[in-house]
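just leaving the lab so this will be short. what follows is a protein written twice so to speak, once as letters and once as structure tokens for the fold. can you read through it and tell me how you think this chain folds. anything you notice is useful, everything is just below:
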Amino acid sequence: MIKITEASIEDIAKIQEIVHITWPITYGEILTKEQLDYMLDLIYSDEALSKQIQNKEQLFYMISDADSVIGFIGIEHNYKEKAITKIHKIYLLPQTQGKGYGKIVFGEIGTMALENNSKELLLNVNRFNTALNFYKKLGFEIKETLDTEIGNGYLMEDYVMRKKL
């Protein structure tokens, strides 16, 4: 059984701990160590996370099982003032994979999206991320290919994926 609760500033250290475990596993063979470090600092520094949480740019939620925090999500309802919920971040610790937690979390995100009048879910995924197949199994389809410059000469090479609700 998992529980999803709204995150606060006090959860920043736990969010950072989770990304420092999951990112090297998820992106270690896709990105250079330099780009990985650059992106972690850009997106997950104390300052960046504080701003995102306090300004409600994204709604952050912690994911827990019976024993401990196992992941987090960052979502945005009414993305670009449309009936879309954008999943900006979703990370679960490696030891949870294959236990059905991801499917449960996506179900909960879908419920939250519907409660906020969204008609679809949207997410970006690195084109070389193995999670791509998981998202397809959940009913997401590739909407477009997107390359985003993030500074320092780095590029995010993503697919934008969507799922109708």
